[in-house]
Amino acid sequence: MTNNNYTPYTIAFYNIENLFDIENDPQTNDDDFLPTSAKRWTSKRYQNKLRKLGSVISKIGEEYTEIAPVLIGLAEVENKKVLSDLVRSKNLIKEEYSYIHYDSSDERGIDVALLYKSDIFKIENSEAFSVYMQDESGKQDYTRDILLVQGTLHNESLNIIVNHWSSRREGEKETEFKRLTASNKVNSIIKTLKKENPNTKIVVMGDFNDNPNNTSITLMEKESELYNPFKTVWSRDKGSQNYDFQWNLFDQILFSTNFFDAKNSALAFHNADVFNTKFLTQYHGKYKGQPFRTYVGKKYKGGYSDHFPVYIQFKPSNKV
Questions:
Q1: Closest alpha carbon to 70 in 51, 48, 98
Q2: What is the pLDDT of residues 77-96, one digit of tens each?
């Protein structure tokens, strides 16, 4: 095993495409993911998905480090049970992940969560923030909460903010205001954190349903003094999600610019990338190279997710 002092720490984010258990939750709209549904979401399919997701998570960033990610933000998680099953699944159990999750008011009952290696990242606090929005009739429009987790990595205090913003299903322009609302909420959380400690270090990750050049992201970058390494990762041939044969990079990880202050940071930025290794892709046909999904509509494909994971890596600097 490589000496920890020199091995980069991987921080990842992964939209895992509808990780539902097979039980009916009367409080949420999970009816698509039951053994009796048109999708026939069975125990066997659920176990297969857990095994596959575990194999991905354990390998993210492996090109540069021998340690599985220290932190992984997740989107599209139904509840604590699926997280417990995931961290105890065949390919992840040896990694000894703990997790943080709060139930949100999202109508489909899907939330964000954070997996973390408790021997490396020491938790100090966590809380969930609602994003308040209204629909056309003035009723509250429920969406995923924003998760804040505070802890210490390599003697550096970190604030991790995990997001899954509103989708573009009703059209990019028609739904833009929802993502701007979420962006403003992140900015206000960061403002409060900086009031308590102007030098605090921040990592913002998520499936933003917007690309690096969209206003919701650039607004956050500017107002909260964040650096977005995924601006240069995204290209015509590279992204985390593909729609109509166009690559989007909706999944991104940004961090506060004070990580670049070498004298006052125990962690130095090393690299950022999309984890799009071949086994995660469709091997042939017209969708070759795109994420190998669990479902396409109601048709079971048995893949991983409709998104690739993304990650950044920090190297321990000389300041400890």
A1: 98
A2: 999 999 999 999 999 999 99
Q: Which domains does the chain have, with CATH numbers?
A: 9-316 (3.60.10.10)
Q: Could you tell me which residues are beta bridge partners of residue 246?
A: 243
> What pLDDT, on the 0 to 100 scale, is given for residue 318?
64
Contact 109, 27 (CB under 8 A): yes
How far is C-alpha 75 from the chain's CA centre? 5
In the prediction, which pLDDT does 319 show?
Answer: 54
- And the tokens for 19? 């990780």
